[in-house]
TrEMBL record:
GO terms for molecular function: DNA binding; DNA strand exchange activity. InterPro entries: Resolv_N, Resolvase-like_N_sf, SSR_resolvase. Keywords: DNA recombination, DNA-binding. This is Resolvase. It comes from the Archaea. The keyword Ribonucleoprotein does not apply. Residues 210-234 are annotated as: Disordered. The keyword Phosphoprotein does not apply.
Amino acid sequence: MATVAAYVRRSTAEQEDQHQIDSIHQWIDDHDLELAEVDMFVEQASGASSTRDQFGDLLEEIEHGGYNDVVVWEISRIARKGTQAQQFFDAAEESGTTIHVTNGSVRRIEPDGHGRLIADIIAAVAAEERRSLIRRTEAGIKRARDEGKWTGQTPTGFVTIDGYLRPNLNPDYDAGETGYHDMVDALEQLDDGASYRATAAETPNVTRQTLSNIDGDDDRRQWYLSPDDVDDERVADALEQDLGGLKNRTS
């Protein structure tokens, strides 16, 4: 049974984790170990999440004395919340597990407490960085909304130009886009009794589920079928700018 474990975490699907893996593999080589002798715990999850499966499994193993050594690339990979990092450090200390960090100002956190103070500080800084990022993100979203910009996922049949929502009147189907008029046609077909499945099959780059979600949302349906009655000012402004084109289509 392996007595060494390694933990690798990336926050998003777009984020690379190969640098973490390469650094840990180098640590394994430097300590004359074989990769098969190390249990790898690898996952994609936010460091602030309390429901990380791999992290939870590793923590449980540590609490039961399953490993003598645990290797991570950076302390921030363990957690972005101070309480979670402290729980991890405490479990390792109580079970006699040494934490090895391949990239950072502290490289070992010993069960006797050596290196713990610096690790605690680094974890606290990481937690504060996360809080600051959340505050900046929230402030940026509020500022964008105050400016009338669209801040969420671009709705089907629309595009965003310089942050502002516009109906997509010239969709690039090869790029996976759906036109505004395509959605108008689709919803009108549904109102005439067509099925979601059949309508989706005739509508470029739209799934049955997307149609069902939009059709079941009265506010969202207005964006396509009653543009003069739209309450969301960002959507109303976007449609008003192209109102001439919409009127020409229905005239």
